[in-house]
Design brief:
By secondary structure, this protein is mainly alpha-helical. The chain has twelve helices and five strands. It starts with 19 loop residues before the first helix and ends in a 14-residue tail after the last helix.
Length: 326
């Protein structure tokens, strides 16, 4: 009586087997990377069959886990610890849930798409390749290799703001420059918020590898705190705009118009003034009155010197005589 054939029961699929080149192709990793992971203990050793190494679906799944953790910012050393915990049965649910929560969307806005023709029409109908390239560099537009005539729009609201500003008369280069400046300031605000919450909220979870329970708690905190940064910035921006816009418009609408320049070009002359003098005058009378103040001061000095000259001049010729004729 012969032995029963080895392998999976009848009707079940044969487990997948890969050579290292096949595993690299399926996983997206290079052969060199796979071997490096094996040397570090991140990847189980393959099964040896004669002179060949055979890999399976477990190796493919492990490469996917490593890639996902690397994308979330984990180092290879920390990934090894996490995978060892996983293999020991301690679980990664909380840790991976925390990573997914941090990596999740920080806005409820859905990305959109726009064709080049729609984009040109939205911005006045003129084709501006330089402006489009600038928008791509800023990430306002993302090229779609599969659809050359379309762009992905990560934030349709941001694109709508740019379109409204352009329709109001703002040049596209000025809009791009404003966005770059704004991003620098907003990134500073985001950094301050993260530093603040790290110090006061997340410090118990730092400095050690969190347990599954700790990671679950931290993920819950991230989910609760996620909208707070935007809500705070929205409220403070509204307050600042209400205060500053009112003050700004009141100033410009009620301030007297600056003195008109002479109509005759022969009567006008450009004169360079020391910067310190101009700053002092601006601080004294305000920026809108600098030219009028300097003009009035100069005219006053001229009049004073004219008066001094008249007072010092001989009167009726009497001062011209020293009395020697008598």
């Amino acid at each position: 009586m012969s032995d029963a054939p080895s392998g999976p029961p009848h009707g079940q699929p044969q487990p997948a087997e890969y050579r290292i080149e096949d595993l690299a192709h399926r996983s997206g990793a290079t052969v060199r990377t796979i071997r490096a992971y094996q040397d570090r203990g991140l990847l189980p050793k393959p099964e040896r069959r004669g002179r060949a190494n055979v890999y399976g679906d477990a190796h493919l799944a492990r490469l996917g886990q490593i890639s996902g953790l690397l994308d979330r910012g984990y180092t290879l050393a920390s990934i090894k610890e996490l995978l060892e915990a996983w293999d020991a049965g301690r679980g990664l649910g909380g840790v991976l849930g925390l990573a997914a929560e941090v990596d999740g969307p920080w806005t409820d806005e859905e990305p959109g798409r726009i064709t080049r023709a729609e984009l040109d029409e939205r911005f006045g109908g003129a084709r501006d390749d330089a402006a489009v390239e600038d928008a791509v560099r800023l990430g306002v537009l993302v090229r779609l290799p599969s659809s050359p005539g379309e762009f992905l729009v990560p934030s349709p609201r941001e694109l709508a703001v740019a379109a409204e500003l352009h329709a109001a008369g703002v040049p596209l280069p000025a809009i791009s420059g404003h966005l770059r400046e704004l991003r620098t300031q907003v990134e500073h605000i985001a950094t301050r918020f993260l530093d603040f919450t790290t110090e006061h909220v997340f410090h118990p979870y730092l400095g050690h590898r969190p347990t599954d329970e700790e990671a679950t708690e931290a993920a819950s905190l991230v989910r609760r705190l996620r909208p707070l940064a935007q809500q705070t910035v929205d409220a403070e921006l509204a307050r600042a705009m209400r205060t500053l816009a009112t003050r700004y418009l009141r100033h410009h609408l009620t301030s007297p118009a600056p003195a008109a320049a002479p109509k005759d070009e022969d009567d006008a002359e450009q004169v360079a003034l020391p910067a310190a003098t101009v700053r002092a005058v601006r601080a004294l009378v305000g920026p809108q009155n600098v030219a009028a103040f300097i003009t009035a001061a100069a005219e006053r000095e001229v009049q004073a010197r004219t008066m001094d000259g008249l007072l010092a001049a001989p009167r009726d010729g009497r001062e011209a005589s020293d009395g020697s004729d008598t």
